[in-house]
Amino acid sequence: MQEISLEKLLETGAYFGHQTRRWNPKMEDYVYDVRDGVHIFDLIKTKQAIAQALEVLKKASTEGKTILFVGPKKQSKDKLTEVAKATGYPYVNQRWLGGTLTNFGQIRSSVEQLGKLKNDLESGAFADYTKKERLLIERRVQKLEKFVGGLVTLKSMPDLMVVVDTHRERGAIIEATRLRIPVVGIVDTNSDPGEVEYPIPMNDDATAAISYVLELMQGAIGEGKSTKPKKEKKVTKGAKKAKK
């Protein structure tokens, strides 16, 4: 397993929480100090939480589970998209659509519509349409691509979710909880750590800190996939006889 650097967490500002007036008392165990009216995280506990989350992600990837990444905020969306694509997992980098999980059939329908429209555009199926009609279709494709493009590989319910800023993405957390999908969540001092199974207490507004943790997650998933047991090829009866 990769080494988690306390120095890196310090350099990237992972230790800064929110102003004390904005805090959730349930985060008290993760707070080390208060400086200039701002809560300071205990980075030892942050490191321990990251280590636990990495083990969970590694195990999930080893077992071939599906992990859904959620992080639309500007500080995380680019890196989150990069990591999700690199690991081959689905992601949400735009506003969470209510019902993404609890009304999964509708989301899959939108994804399938996106695929069909893109194929039809590429094949020239709309060649006889008017310019205005084609423009409307292209706009529809762009809108679908924006909101469900990252979910193309999500064929069924995810087994695990990674959420950046659980306070902001509470809608996603509520749906995951309802469907008993465990969540690895980055929680700041204004969040409720009890809402997720694997909270990572740290600054959820620092781009560099978020990127560092996502890179660690990518590494853990990569390790898990590399140790995934290979399926044995079935030997047919005819082949068995030939070997004798």
Topology:
Layout: H1 6-11, E1 16-19, E2 31-35, E3 38-41, H2 43-62, E4 67-70, H3 77-87, E5 91-92, H4 104-123, H5 131-148, E6 160-164, H6 170-178, E7 183-187, E8 198-201, H7 207-226, H8 237-243
Parallel strand pairs: 4-5, 4-6, 6-7, 7-8
Antiparallel strand pairs: 1-3, 2-3
Protein name: Small ribosomal subunit protein uS2
Family: Belongs to the universal ribosomal protein uS2 family.
Organism: Candidatus Woesebacteria bacterium RIFCSPHIGHO2_01_FULL_41_10
Give keywords.
single chain, 244 residues, alpha/beta, Rossmann fold, Helix Hairpins, five-stranded parallel sheet, three-stranded antiparallel sheet, 8 strands, globular, ribosomal protein, Ribosomal_uS2, Ribosomal_uS2_bac/mit/plastid
Written overview of the protein:
There is one protein chain. The protein is α/β, with parallel strands linked by helices. It folds into 2 domains: 6-98 and 157-226, 3-Layer(aba) Sandwich (Rossmann fold); 106-149, Helix Hairpins, CATH 1.10.287. It has 8 helices and 8 strands, in the order H-E-E-E-H-E-H-E-H-H-E-H-E-E-H-H. A 5-stranded parallel sheet has the order 5-4-6-7-8, with helices on both faces. Helix 2 (43-62) runs parallel beside helix 7 (207-226), helix 3 (77-87) runs parallel beside helix 7 (207-226) and helix 4 crosses helix 5. The longest helix is centred in the N-terminal third of the chain and has 20 residues, at 43-62. The model has no long low-confidence stretch (mean pLDDT 92). Residues 227-244 have a biased composition (Basic residues). This is Small ribosomal subunit protein uS2. One of its GO terms (biological process) is translation. It comes from Candidatus Woesebacteria bacterium RIFCSPHIGHO2_01_FULL_41_10.
